[in-house]
Every structure is written in C-alpha cells, then in structure tokens.
Amino acid sequence: MFYRRKHLLAIEGLHPPEIGHLLELADSYVLLNRSGKTQRDLLRGRTLINLFFEDSTRTRTSFELAGKRLGADVINMSVSTSSVNKGETLLDTAATLNAMQCDLLVVRHNQSGAPNLLARKVDASVINAGDGTHEHPTQALLDALTIKRRKGRIEGLTVAICGDVLHSRVARSNIHLLTTMGSQVRVAGPPTLMPAEVAKFGVTVFHDMKEGLAGADIVMMLRLQKERMTSSLVPSEREYFRFWGLDAEKLAFAKPDALVMHPGPMNRGVEIDSAVADDPVRSVIKEQVEMGVAVRMAVLDTLSRGDGRNDA
Ligand code: CP
Predict the structure, then answer these.
(1) The pTM is what?
(2) Whose CA is nearest to atom 6 of ligand 1?
(3) Which residues contact 56 (CB under 8 A, 6 or more apart)?
(4) pLDDT tens digits for 172-202?
(5) 5 touches 312 (CB < 8 A)
(6) How many Å apart are CA 217 and CA 150, to the nearest integer?
(7) Distance of alpha carbon 88 from its chain centroid, rounded?
(8) Which of 12, 207, 208, 233 gets the highest tally of CB atoms within 10 A of its CB?
C-alpha cells in the first residue's frame, strides 16, 4: 500500500509510487467495471456524498457509479436546491454533512482551495473533483491510465497540452502528474491563455500550435473556458479555431500514431474539429470517460482502507 494519505486534494506533491499505486489499482478495476459486476463488500456501510457547486456530467456520474460498484451508499447533493441558496456557508454545509457520518466527501467548487479548507474541518476523506483553476486530480489520473494502457508507459512520452492552459485545472494536474512520472510535457496556446511562469513547472512553452505538436505522442486538447474569463482573451471562436483548433492538418505534425485526448465537455469547432474528436483510431476521448470510473473506484477503495494513514 503506497498511498497513505487521508485525502486526495491535488496531484502536486504526490510521489511516483503513490501515483503508480492508484494507476495499478485502477487498471485492475477496468475489467470489473466493464463486466458491470460489483464488489459490494468493499465499501459496504460507507457513505459517499457528492457535493458539486459547479456543473458536471462525467465526474459526478462516475463517482456515483464507482461508489455504487463498491457497495457504498451514495448521495448526490443538489446544491441548487440545498440550503446554500438560503445563505449557508461552505463550512456550515460541510459540518452538516459531517454530522451525518459521511465517510467520503467528493467536492467540486469554483474557488481554488475549497476542498483543502473542507479537509481541515471534516472527519471524512475529501476528494477534490475540481477546484477553480487549481487542480482536478482524478482527471489527471484517468488521463494517465488511458495513456498507460494505450502506450504501455508514461515515462519518455512527449505530451502536448494545447489551448486554454490559463484557466485549466486539468492542465495543472496533468502537468504535475506527467512530469512526476517522466513525460516530456509541452504546453501550447496563445500568450493570453498561458499562465505567467508556467515554465517553472518543467514544461516547454509554445505559442505556435504546429511547433508544439511536432513529434508529440499525445495531443491533449483543453476546453476554451469562457465562463472563467473576466475579459475577452480571444478575438473570436472562428479565429481561435483557425490557430488553435485541432484539425487533421495540425494533427499531421504530431507522430503518426499520436493519440488525441480531451477531458470534456468539448466545444466542437472551437478547440477541436469533430472529424478528429470522433476519429475511431486516433481519438481516445470515450476511453478517457470509461477510465474515469475505474480510477474513481481505485481512489475510493484506497482512501477507505486508510492503512497506516498519515492524515496528509
Ligand atoms: N472532465 C470533466 O471534469 O467533466 P465534467 O465537468 O462533465 O465532470
């Protein structure tokens, strides 16, 4: 057992054996998930609450499925119809759920650091399901599992992460995971959508898409996150697609067997062309979604065991 933390709040700071453990366990859950069978004894008697303050399709559903596959009682709290609307604070909401003997609290919030704050206040294990522009750790784990199963390794691969890096918690978690596990990571995007000092995370920065893609093994596209933009950072979606949208012509600069990834939800015709997104040979976007269930099963299983926990 290599993962002895109580929570999963971020990829940053995790060590290769911890990531390796979660990926191996997740890999062992892929077949179980495909078979539709369950291992209901593993989380029997445990309660998992999905507390999502932001919209989600993939993450929330797959945590629910993962919890049910392992036998947990799963509650999806609808924030829009909760007492949050009456002014209850995040901490009071969490304390209320904590008093119901919740064991696993899956949190998505638009404020970076919200899951870390909750982790200090509740008894449950807290899992970050995406916080602001900070991190989305289970997305990076499912991306890594997809890559490892397709390419047989993560170490030594060249991964190009393209588009709206500035607003992307997916990019941050992937940068931490992939550099920790030995990939060469590039980020490619317009200067207005690139965080200052991103290079200090050990990535190479490109402001030309074709140069960023040249010889890449993996092309990871990011959603243009207009909802997080406080000013106009791109001239128009049409122009963005021309320079930064992944189509067959730009993909030809990557390796011939390069895989195309996208965390979803996709803006078709903005950051990715439908023909590329739906290419049955190159695109692994649906596989990423499938791996999401296996990864979340592994995370729930690992945190529930709590062997030799160091409460980090
Ligand atoms: N990739 C991802 O987090 O998707 P959702 O917003 O649908 O959960």
Answers:
(1) 0.96
(2) 56
(3) 108, 129, 130
(4) 999 999 999 999 999 999 999 999 999 999 9
(5) yes
(6) 11
(7) 28
(8) 233
